Amino acid sequence: MTSQAPRPVVLIGPMAAGKSSVGRTLAKVLAREFIDTDKVIVRDNGPIPEIFAELGERGFRELEANVVAEALRPGAVVSLGGGAVLDEGTRARVADSTVVLITVSEAAVASRIDNNKRPLLAEEGIVAWRRITAEREPLYRQLADAVADTSHRPMRRVAEEIAAWVLEHEHPGSESKKERGITSV
Q: What class does CATH assign to 9-184?
């Protein structure tokens, strides 16, 4: 019997939750490739604010969906932009991955988005973050296999806890998400 490569581990969650920081460390702990979809978009298309200005949110989401599709390789740790889950195709693609929802409290995120260049937060800051996060929360929860909060813990510790959970629960082709439900890390 041939062993299969593990499913991708996908990090989802609101803007500034720490998906990229946790993902980088998680990939190192698991000795896997790390792909930050926002960084790939910027590398291939330029700064995200410029993409939003030129193509609008819809155009950006189309680029993002294509990058996510390419990033979901067996064994990879993939950090998605906060709004990637809005795309139905992306939601369908990540369903075959191990999905970890990275959460953060409003109080903890406030300093992370201060003077930020995120297009969707440009005018309203934390007010927009709160609204956008609330709108996306049902999608995050629907997709998540596990939840980890970054509000008051070092990113390295969060990544190590996720790595332990992933290694404990990683069984390609076994039970479905609906059977597992959401597990808190």
A: alpha beta
Domain boundaries, the chain: 9-184
pTM for the model stands at 0.86
Distances (CA, A) of 157 to 4, 40, 151, 153: 28, 26, 12, 7
The CB density around residue 86, as the number of other CB atoms within 10 Å, is 16
Q: How far apart are CA 144 and CA 124, in angstroms?
A: 28
pLDDT tens sequence across 49-71 = 899 899 998 999 999 999 999 99
Q: How many CA atoms lie within 13 A of 71 on its CB side?
A: 26
Contact between residue 185 and residue 160 where contact means Cβ atoms under 8 Å apart: no
- Could you tell me which residue, 87 or 114, shows the higher pLDDT? 87
